[in-house]
Design a protein that fits this description.
The chain is mainly alpha-helical and about 100 residues long. The chain has helices at about 5-15, 25-35, 40-55, 75-100, and strands at about 25, 55-60, 70-75. It is globular and about 50 Å long.
Length: about 100
C-alpha cells in the first residue's frame, strides 16, 4: 500500500480508536496491529505524538501499574472535528471509487 495513503488511513483509524474513553497507547496499537501487521509500533507512536502536538489528542499519565507509568490518550474537541472531517472525506472518496466500479 502506498505510504501516503496508509498514513492517512492510520490517522483516521487512530482518531476513531480515541473517540471513546481514554486509552493506553500500547492497547490502541495492539488493536490496530491486527489489521495493519506490517506497521511498526514506532509508526503508530509517531502519529499519536503528532496528533497530540497538533492538538487533536490529549495525553495524561494513568495510575500506578506493575510497571512504568502509562501514558493515556484521549480525543480533544479539535480531534473530534478532525475525525468528523476525515470520516466525511473517506465516505466521499469511497463513494467515488465505488462509482467507478472499484470494490
Amino acid at each position: 500500500m502506498d505510504a501516503q495513503l496508509k498514513k492517512g488511513i492510520l490517522e483516521l483509524c487512530l482518531l476513531q480508536r480515541l473517540s471513546g474513553e481514554p486509552k493506553y497507547g500500547y492497547d490502541i496499537i495492539q488493536a490496530l496491529r491486527v489489521h495493519f501487521p506490517e506497521v511498526t509500533e514506532s509508526t503508530f507512536y509517531a502519529i499519536l505524538r503528532r496528533l497530540a502536538k497538533e492538538g487533536a489528542a490529549d495525553t495524561f499519565q494513568g495510575g500506578e501499574s506493575n510497571g512504568p507509568t502509562r501514558k493515556y490518550y484521549r480525543l480533544t474537541e479539535e480531534g473530534r472535528e478532525r475525525l468528523a472531517g476525515m470520516t466525511a472525506d473517506w465516505r466521499r472518496l469511497r463513494g467515488i471509487v465505488e462509482s467507478l466500479g472499484i470494490q
